[in-house]
Amino acid sequence: MITSKRTAQATPEALHRIFTIAEAPDSTLGRIEQEISHNLIGFLNNRIVASKNALTDIEQDFICPRIPEQPEFVSDHIHHLLDKLVAQSVHTASPSFIGHMTSALPAFILPLSKLMVGLNQNLVKVETSKAFTPLERQVLGMMHNLVYQEDESFYQAWMHSAQHSLGAFCSGGTVANITALWVARNKLLKADGDFKGITRSGLFAALQHYGYQDLVILTSERGHYSLQKSADILGIGQDSVIAIETDENNKIDCQKLAQKCQQLSAQNIKILAIVGVAGTTETGNVDPLDKIADIAEQYQCHFHVDAAWGGATLLSNKHRYLLNGIERADSVTIDAHKQMYVPMGAGVVVFKDPSSVADIEHHAEYILRKGSKDLGSHTLEGSRSGMAMLVYASLHIISRPGYEMLINRAIDKAKYFAKIINEHEDFELVTEPELCLLTYRYVPTSVQRLLSAADAEQQAELNLILGKLTKFIQKRQRENGHSFVSRTRIKVACYNDEKVIVFRVVLANPLTSKETLRDILAEQCLLAQESENFLPQLLAAAKV
Amino acid sequence: MITSKRTAQATPEALHRIFTIAEAPDSTLGRIEQEISHNLIGFLNNRIVASKNALTDIEQDFICPRIPEQPEFVSDHIHHLLDKLVAQSVHTASPSFIGHMTSALPAFILPLSKLMVGLNQNLVKVETSKAFTPLERQVLGMMHNLVYQEDESFYQAWMHSAQHSLGAFCSGGTVANITALWVARNKLLKADGDFKGITRSGLFAALQHYGYQDLVILTSERGHYSLQKSADILGIGQDSVIAIETDENNKIDCQKLAQKCQQLSAQNIKILAIVGVAGTTETGNVDPLDKIADIAEQYQCHFHVDAAWGGATLLSNKHRYLLNGIERADSVTIDAHKQMYVPMGAGVVVFKDPSSVADIEHHAEYILRKGSKDLGSHTLEGSRSGMAMLVYASLHIISRPGYEMLINRAIDKAKYFAKIINEHEDFELVTEPELCLLTYRYVPTSVQRLLSAADAEQQAELNLILGKLTKFIQKRQRENGHSFVSRTRIKVACYNDEKVIVFRVVLANPLTSKETLRDILAEQCLLAQESENFLPQLLAAAKV
Fold first, then answer.
1. How many inter-chain contacts (A to B, CB under 8 Å) are there?
2. Which of residues 419-448 of B touch A (CB under 8 A)?
3. Which of A176, A23, A158 is nearest to B383 (CA)?
4. For chain B, what is the radius of gyration of the CA atoms?
5. Mean pLDDT in chain B?
């Protein structure tokens, strides 16, 4: 780090300079920018973290709660950031960072992001976004078309209509899911006779008016935690999210779902929504959406599909069938910042019916006036950036066939990984990949034999110790800094539906190679051997 | 626009290139980036829009709902964006764009934004953000300190504590306000005996358990529309947001507030929260926060301050006193993307009590495990970008004295503008600036005389026509493309509390000069004269 002898000063001239510095490549800022690029390329090499300090150590660099009284020169501060922040951040784009849903981004995203930030549009209203408003409406139209495939005249009628919207652009899948359930709730409990509707009169009055004992949301036990959060925020309560058991493939058991619906109806408990999952966060499986649609139709409740992860699969003509039935959903969440390779902050919810958003519409005197095309009149958020541009650009530059290639190759890669896990004598594949996610664990071949011979109680004990081993390997591997898989706990059918700790991987990064995957398994074997004391414990547990 | 003869193809090699293009300044992408910078500088010149097509014309460029089957070369697509999008977007950073709360940004924001996007951290959990998590916690600490000024030991104890949080970083003020009221609601209706709390059991059961007839939120009639939206989402209902009248300075009338509280208590209606406004969206006035705090204390209800706009005033030692009493608030919203000059997408809510967030905590198996320092366990949103870095960098590079200078100068500029409006015989200043906002309208001196001599009915008629004139001038000025003021409708004391249409300006852009302001008035005079037919109408209305 270069230490500056100069001292920055907060003068009117210095401030003016900060707001006006030209961006020519030979200017100070141009040089700084090149330096950042070089550092970024250096950082984005080989390792998942550039420096592997413990979090508590890193915290020591971020300890001061006082706002500085002394300004810093831009170049000095950027050196500080490279040193203390970038070097200690996570290389989410690394080919061997396969534990979460972040991936490498296309390189064109960087200059476009700068363009987006430089323009600093606010999509809440046309007055601060102009062409960005029709652009966002077009992106919503394209995402709607991806799901519902309506004909040209449908989009001509609704895409740019002031009173309608094909969806809402959100900061992420959680806000998208809340928005979908907000629409569902307000539609169900709408104005009726003297009752002014939940929007104006609230949930308490609404339930009294309609005579419902309770509202519930049904989803599989693999449903994302944002559904509980939504139920909390919307006043329905987390316990009203009823988790329906999944089958051995982590898909909702539709027979149990139908039974539950019948039982609830008999109790006069209204089903607000059934939420199908298209790509569970932990295993990547897709619920039988067509069957869920039948049930939702029968009980006349809102059918929402949380396709935050799996929605992009619709771009693949080969795998699109996995989501059959999604076109019958009333609303669908898709995160563009997941498998559509745009940066964090791009969630979308689309609605089958373009007038759905009427149930969450709001206005103000200074903006969002009735009849305006301001997008802010039907979004949960207020001010929003021009992120939709990055989705628009990606859809044009990569195109559908490009996305299909990315998605098909990711699924193939997951199948390859499953295959080498199956072939390896010391690993156990826990969930097969349907999309590009899978889970597995390290179980030495000798212990595999013990497990299959053991009774339920012994199995439970063995799995407890194996869980500790999985945790040990996962943590140690992360700390080594070459690769990262995540871990989770899931119910496993062959172990009496016991919850078992497993490695979880997401293979969306196009730069992850087969070699990367082989290396990750090899490192895990080595780490397992480093911890010799697990084997005696396992043998003792099996009472051998 | 350069038309390419080449045709892009979706091949594995082309896709690989898209994800790996080096960023050296002499590469294709480097050249594209320079071109974008040059275009951006060209665009960010003089005018508020580069091309002034009507929205319906622009929509014709954004009409296709199909996802392209044919990929585009990056350079071709960027030319398309510059041509169809950038040229038709809004120059929110223009010195003469003074109608909304967007401003020029410091130039260092651009390379830092690129760094942020390039790193693509996800702040929901430490595993995908590492040093960004302590950084965000420090930023929340600094913002907390700005409001509450607790001592060093307080921040040492709570800033990095896994079970606590000094606030939440949000995509904007709306999510910040919802989060604050969500916390207030869940705290008020917490678990109690057999009752499991609203979080689990929902609002209906909670109100029954506590025996409340209703919950209400009190705020001034100048409160932001996001409060109604929050009440809708949280299940309380928009009608439960009770608007208390403001005085002649657009500040909540505390006597009326106290009366209303007393009346509600007598009816067994529980006050969930009183929301003070620190910088109303339309006029920039600050409620008497200290007096509101007294009332909130008396009725033991949550005291929230919506300082989305005005919170940054705390950085000015000179003007900080305007917000006296804010340190008694249970929660405070501040938008860094407003008067702290960072790009769209940086809202903050801070909590006086670091354990407040316990009431909205949630967990999941694969992340947000209990005891982790994952920020996602107490935010409304899930995946979030590293925006906090831009606030951190701005606080260090600009520093408090730098911000003070920006804020003081903005207020001085607003006072100057008020002065020249007052001195001009054909303008009427409607609201005096307290922060850097003011409202005014064009009223020819002859009509001013008519107005003061008129009875209430005549005044109403005159104001109706003057409203049309204001609207005419505002629209025409926007269409001319040199400058932009917004308009709104506000209640005006001297006209029997009638709602009157006014120009609204926000003078936060440091590049706006006194000359800009004089030019804007001059243009408005010219536009008024273009519309000769308003004067006869006005005279007729006054029955002269």
1. 552
2. none
3. A176
4. 26
5. 92
